[in-house]
Amino acid sequence: MTRTEDRLEPAVRRTVAVILLGGIMGILDGSMVVVAADTLAGHFGSSLAVIGWASTGYLLALTIAVPVTAWAVDRVGGRRLWLFGLVLFLAGSVASGLAWDVGPLIVFRVVQGAGAGILDPLMLTLLVRTAGPGRSGRVVGLMGAVGSAGPVVGPIVGGLIVQSLDWRWMFFVNVPIVIVAFVLARRVLPVDRPAPGTARTRLDVVGVALIGPGVAASVLALSQAAEHGGFTTPYVVAPLAVGLVLVGLYVSHALRRTEPLIDPRMFAHRGFPPGVLVLAFNGVTTYGALFALPLFYQQASGDGPFAAGLLLAPLGIGAVISMPLAGRLSDRLGSRNLAVAGSALTLLSALAFTFADSGDRVLPAVASLAIGLGLGCASAPTMSVVFKILPPERVAQGSSLLYMLNQLGASLGITVAALLIQSAADPATGFRHTSWALVVAATAMLAATTRVPGRTPAPVLEGASL
């Protein structure tokens, strides 16, 4: 690909910018509310465990909405679905800001999460379709930069709002941004029609009832493991067993259908499974570090919440720098070598974390920047090659599948970090144990990247068997 062919035309750049603007709020809002848990508990006179459901409900609704989005995008058109997702997210934001008790707040956060469950995977689908498969690495890198910054910027913005304004502004701040995103999307996004032959395809209700709750139950089990201090309590075993059974039943159900909600036959291509594994372990490593680092700064080094958020910024900065660059280079040079280099840098950075002591800020900050660079360099090329593997009609399903598995990886990373920190004798030891867990995850990611295709392979053939 020549340098001229690599450039995005002005119309494409405008469309990409509008899509990123609409999608950023769902990414920010998922992490922004976390810092307000204590404030919300005091305002509503509730326990932290109950307030936690404002975040858990948001995540579960988001997870359930993702597979339905994969089905709906070709049936109603990407533009219509995008606008509907913005309206739903806006309604949930306004209602959450007006909540008069903790119960309504949780319900309204579920509505907001459903809107985010439409926007987040659809953002990736629309970006790939807008740029075309030959430049998917570049737009995937841009989206990844926004997504990587969200978990870091969200707590900082949330902390500033809670510290300076009423907590309700965490939700009201979305309103002008979403309205602008809606107006621009109506003007910029091309009108697309339902894909031929799909308008009459009914929603696979059985598939929705299996995969959405199945993945959501698995995410819930992981969050309960962190809350209850282990994997052996009934609060964890029961939802985890339900989740595994439902996902297994879904796979059996999907293999018997011609047009399943999310086709497991995508795993028939040799390049798809390692790509999925890379992104899943990337989620484990990213969110394990995002959870452990602020606690290390606060508990071991004595920093406040806002200072800890600022000290976390190098991780996001590293990913913001590397993802667009690595995504763009992958379109020209191939994906494997970039992904291997990024995973190796991630592994070395995780090893550096194991040497951090109480009061140490320089080594964790430098290692955070390096691990952000490594994670971005590994994920953007991998996502790019995954979407080059898939035929156009499977891009929406691939987006949803990657998003769900990344969420599971994120939940697992947070759970493992929480358990290791809680069970340690002191905060510094807990962080060191978590760092070794990150080393393991990064090693697994590095092994998977060696199987990622270097150049774009042929797309998966329809009807391929496992």
TrEMBL record:
UniProt entry keywords in alphabetical sequence: Cell membrane, Membrane, Transmembrane, Transmembrane helix, Transport
Mode of membrane association: Multi-pass membrane protein
Sequence ranges assigned to domain Major facilitator superfamily (MFS) profile in this UniProt record: 15-459
The UniProt record lists the keyword Cell wall biogenesis/degradation: no
Pfam families the UniProt entry points to: MFS_1
Name of protein: EmrB/QacA subfamily drug resistance transporter
GO CC annotation terms, alphabetical: plasma membrane
Membrane-spanning segments: 12-36, 48-69, 81-100, 106-127, 139-161, 167-185, 205-223, 235-255, 276-300, 306-326, 338-356, 362-389, 401-421
Chief location bin: membrane
Localization terms from the record: Cell membrane
GO molecular function: transmembrane transporter activity
Organism: Phytomonospora endophytica
